[in-house]
Amino acid sequence: MRKTQNRLWAGLGVLFFIGTLLRVLYVQDMEYKEDEEYNFTQTQLIGNSQPWPWYGIPSGVYLVNPGMSIWVFAVLAKLFGIHSPTSLAHAVQAFALLGIAMILPFAFRFVQDSKERQVWLWAFALSLVNPFLILYQRKLWPEPFLPFFVMLTFMGWWRRERWGYALLWGAVGACLGQIHMSGFFFAAGLFLWTLAFDPRPKKTCWKAWTAGSILGALPLVPWAYTVLTHPVEGRISAGLDEITQLKYWTFWITDPTGLTLGNPLGLLRGSSNWAQISDFVRYPLVSGHASYVVGIFHAVALISSILIYIFAVRRMVTWNPRKWAQILIGRDSNSVFLQNSALIACGILMTLTGVVIRRYYMTITFPLEFIFLIHLARPDTTTGKRLLGALWIAELVISMGFVHYIHQNQGSIQGDYGEAYHLKVK
């Protein structure tokens, strides 16, 4: 038994080491555009020539972000005496890795069912090599901070019948939207889903949750005043056209597959994902010639993902209405309940606003997109393990290819990535 546990922890350690390398290697190649420069500059000004701010940079929907979106950077910079963008990038990467590592105490201390624990451990493994997460966790953006606080929220929610945990759920949940505004939708979705479908509503300590929510929301008061007294210079909602695109669920399905690097790598090459990754799939180059290794593993990731969904659909068509109701709500499993609060409640709330949903907004759902795919794959079966294993290997190769491609080309000027940082500071 002890040997098995030692092997498990050794394996988890190796996975974490791989995920660490994929984030910290070639830090000089990081993106460094307006948002990144702003976030770093503020860490050097706050507490020196400027007071702590109550709001940050304008968001993608023109509202200024709450102050906590800057505080997270400032606290790291003050805590570790950081005075360069690359040092701040390493600190942010470390915090992102800490957020992923939070899955382990959650899986072993909170999740009692062994099959469900297996699902969370697979989520740990996939999130460490997923290209979507690696892209955004190498940025000086607030998104890398979200996994840590989301996992704290889950811990509080999981034991919400206890006063301290319910307080934690409310307080941290109120902070999520202040780090990134997608967190408002996520926290609201979890609250509404719990209020409507909680199988043990009388056991939830709602007074503690309310106290925590009020406490966590206090920093929003000055931000709210700023928003109300300074009209938005742009259109917040894109309207019906954005709603009908159902982007939230498109991103939900595709993010865990590793097939989402088109925009940063080749946005100017065309509107199709294939056009955007057409140069990337040629890598690595061997003596100047394309090897197409990255392309081959894109195909592996695509086939593995399709098979997971096909096998899942084949199972679902045999379900009776009662089974469908149980699964859609998730009353029989805390993991599924959390998953569906994000998949359904948060998705509906965010979509109905009509705001332009960008792929990086989905980082607030960490690691529930992975949990969803893993549940569909059924990792307790041989077929499920093989498909998830193939997907993990494919995503590892794609992510390694991404880090190499950016280093080799000093960024990607054909994509949203742009030039690497070291070219801009020469």
Provide keyphrases for this structure.
mainly alpha, two-stranded antiparallel sheet, 6 strands, two-stranded antiparallel ribbon, 66% helix, 4% strand, 426 residues, globular
Descriptive notes:
The chain is mostly helical and 426 residues long. It has one domain (2-424). The chain has 22 helices and six strands. It has helices at residues 2-24, 34-45, 68-80, 85-101, 103-110, 114-129, 131-137, 146-158, 163-179, 182-197, 206-217, 220-229, 240-244, 247-254, 262-266, 273-277, 293-316, 321-329, 334-352, 368-377, 382-409, 421-424, and strands at residues 55-58, 64-66, 285-286, 289-290, 411-412, 418-419. A hairpin with a 5-residue loop joins strand 5 (411-412) and strand 6. The longest helix has 28 residues, at 382-409. The mean pLDDT is 93.
In short:
This protein is mainly alpha-helical and 426 residues long.
Decide which structural class fits the backbone: mainly alpha
Query: Which shape, going by the Cα principal axes?
Result: globular
N- to C-terminal separation? 56 Å
The number of domains: 1
- Topology as H/E string? HHEEHHHHHHHHHHHHHHEEHHHHHEEH
How is the secondary structure organized here?
Layout: H1 2-24, H2 34-45, E1 55-58, E2 64-66, H3 68-80, H4 85-101, H5 103-110, H6 114-129, H7 131-137, H8 146-158, H9 163-179, H10 182-197, H11 206-217, H12 220-229, H13 240-244, H14 247-254, H15 262-266, H16 273-277, E3 285-286, E4 289-290, H17 293-316, H18 321-329, H19 334-352, H20 368-377, H21 382-409, E5 411-412, E6 418-419, H22 421-424
Antiparallel strand pairs: 1-2, 3-4, 5-6
Helix pairs in contact: 1-4, 1-6, 2-3, 4-8, 5-6, 6-20, 6-21, 8-9, 9-10, 9-11, 10-19, 14-19, 17-21, 19-20
